[in-house]
Amino acid sequence: MNVTVTVNGVRYSRDVEPRTLLVYFLREHLGLTGTHVGCDTSTCGACTVLLNGKAVKSCTVLAVQAEGAQITTVEGLAQGDRLHPIQQAFWDEHGLQCGFCTPGMMLAAVDLLQRNPNPTEEQIRHALEGNLCRCTGYQHIVNAVQAAARAMSAAVGAPSGGE
Amino acid sequence: MIPATFEYVRAKSVREAVSLLQQHGGRAKLLAGGHSLLPLMKLRLSQPEVLIDLGPVEELRGVREEGSSVVIGAMTTHDELASSPLVRERVPLLAECAAQIGDVQVRNRGTLGGSLAHADPAADYPAAVLVLDAQMECEGPAGARTVPVSQWFVDMLTTALRPDEVLCRVRVPAQTRGQGWSYTKLPHPASGYSLLGVACLLSVDGGTVREARVAITGVGPKALRLPKVEQALAGKPADEASFAEAAKLASDGLDATDDLYASAEYKRHLAAVYTKRGLLRALERVRQ
Fold first, then answer.
1. Interval B32-46: pLDDT, tens
2. From the CA of A24, how many Å to the nearest CA of chain B?
């Protein structure tokens, strides 16, 4: 069955079996291996991508359900050499240890910051409930999201700033 | 984990979905947000030969007010419900329930209709729609049919929806002004499913309970109203002492089942604890 999606601004069209999960479509058909497969049971959030702007667990979406959709993966966050503020913040605040959960964490954080540009610590923890970090580095992850929120708020209004 | 092979078709309208269901008989399943069905298919606990995707069916989306009811399209997501100004204003119990389902990613995909048609014994909505006296509007080959929620949940994963019908809308009477409400749950820490959840609607007149409606989900094969608790509360003072007394009846004869996480005995104990907490929370809102 044919699927056409736009991933990180690039249009892709592929023939897939209907049972192909979106995460395997991204990784194996499109070669975008930044999205990780963790638990494969919609629990851990490592496979989180933005589907039409909203965070979803791509292990629990069929590629065919994404027909016509706009998808953002971790590869789509940076603009050339310039990191997205959430990426820069994870770097600056040591928001990762092994890094396996990081792509999903960052995309869940982007979903949060789109809805709520200035979240409290509690709101950040609530928004990241669907993302597990087995290194248990949650405190630095929360710090990173707060730092990104500050950076993105500061950039709003600047002529070339913000997404 | 990959599901078994299946044929995939997209429905563009309810009418088309019904005709596809007729065409494929019992071999087909409807796909809404997929957050109950796809995990089961990955575990091969469910192996439908045909999936009919309701994703493109626009008429199944959205929330609107009709008279004194709020009508919610079956494909409305938990997140859309939780953030809808209309739902938050007119049926805040349902918004509070939707906001507690799973996590952000699950709420972005999972749907009201999908959850109610699936009838997972640990789902959250069943308790809320039971106390709200919702009406389930279905469409099948013979036309439209409305099922009162009191007749909807038949058994574990079994509802009154017929195999060739689509659940299209849920019609929810708006909460009345001054009525208190709450949805209180104990989530499983990994899955977010309810070990148990209690929904309460509370009407109070001059410090006396005029009407209490209480329903519980997660403890047994299906969600239930708790008529003994409701009757014990009617006419009693709206205070902690009478709530504690009535809440004890929540455990009384409750059809609880052991599962991987909690014994039936523990769930019966929790039923009384959460019923009391839920009533107290509802009472705070009566006074607001």
1. 999 999 999 999 999
2. 10
Nearest to B97 by CA among B172, B39, B168: B172
CB count within 10 Å of CB B122 equals: 21
pLDDT in tens, B159-177: 999 999 999 999 999 999 8
How close B186 comes to chain A (CA, Å)? 15
Answer with the one of B157, B173, B189 that is the final residue of a domain: B173
Q: Within this chain, do residues B77 and B163 fall inside the same structural domain, yes or no?
A: yes
Q: What is the ipTM of this complex?
A: 0.94
Q: What is the CATH number of the domain that holds A10?
A: 3.10.20.30
Of B31, B103, B107, B188, which to mutate for an interface test with A (greatest number of A Cβ within 10 Å)? B103
Question: Looking at chain A, which runs of residues are DSSP E strands?
Answer: 2-7, 10-15, 48-51, 54-57, 70-72
- With beta carbons under 8 A apart, name residues in chain B contacting A101: none
What Rg do the C-alpha atoms of chain A give, in angstroms? 16
Range of the domain at A25: 2-76
Structural domain includes residue A143? yes
Q: What is the pLDDT of residues B37-95, one digit of tens each?
A: 999 999 999 999 999 999 999 999 999 999 999 999 999 999 999 999 999 999 999 99
